[in-house]
Design a protein that fits this description.
Blueprint: H1 13-38, H2 44-50, E1 53-56, E2 65-70, E3 73-79, H3 82-90, E4 116-120, E5 131-132, E6 138-141, E7 148-150, E8 155-157, E9 169-171, E10 176-179
Antiparallel strand pairs: 1-10, 2-3, 3-4, 5-6, 6-7, 7-8, 9-10
Length: 186
């Protein structure tokens, strides 16, 4: 009968069992812990209800308006033409129900001219969605009850009493608008 001498440098079957058991234990702990960690994330409904929305505005032409959804509500993003900006600037307090200077409603990225309007797409009378009008100074017409808003969302005539509200937004870059940030429009 021969005797083998095992030195500490050589792995044994017992060492393999220790390592394998430790690895299985670590995998088991991770498998048990993952549901507890994962449940801390907000669910899809919460994320959809409040996360900011990034919009690529590089393809929007002058005079064009798009509708985006944030928190389940529609918003208009409109790139004004020079004529629309001039026409909205000519309107005074006597031309509208809820006067607000047009330069407070027109904004833009820091490195570009101010020619963007971002407003709620719900009429302030009963919540209908106004239709886009192509002639300045009128910008939107509510087909339900006849409210007319200028191209910056200020009420000109009709049963609506207030302007279309401005959502919180910022321009992240010259090509990206973010609706739903804590910092109000630029």
């Amino acid at each position: 009968m021969s005797e083998e001498t095992i030195t500490a440098d050589e792995p044994t079957r017992r060492d393999f069992i220790y390592v394998a058991t430790g690895m299985m234990g670590a995998v088991g702990v991770a498998a048990v812990a993952w549901p507890f960690i994962d449940q801390m994330r907000p669910d899809a409904a919460v994320r959809a209800a409040g996360l900011p929305v990034e919009i690529d505005i590089s393809a929007i032409e002058e005079g064009q308006a798009i509708t985006v959804t944030w928190r389940g509500k529609p918003y208009f993003v409109r790139r004004l033409t020079g004529e629309e900006i001039a026409a909205s600037g000519e309107l005074g307090a006597g031309d509208m129900k809820d006067f607000q200077p047009s330069d407070e409603r027109i904004s833009g990225p820091a490195d570009a001219e101010n020619q963007w309007v971002v407003v709620s797409a719900n009429c302030t009378h009963l919540g209908c969605i106004p239709k886009t009008v192509e002639n300045a100074p009128e910008g939107w017409y509510c087909p339900c009850h006849g409210s007319v808003f200028d191209s910056t969302g200020r009420i000109l005539r009709g049963p609506a009493a207030t302007n279309l509200p401005l959502p919180p937004f910022v321009f992240a870059s010259a090509e990206t608008l973010v609706i739903g940030t804590e910092t109000a429009g630029a």
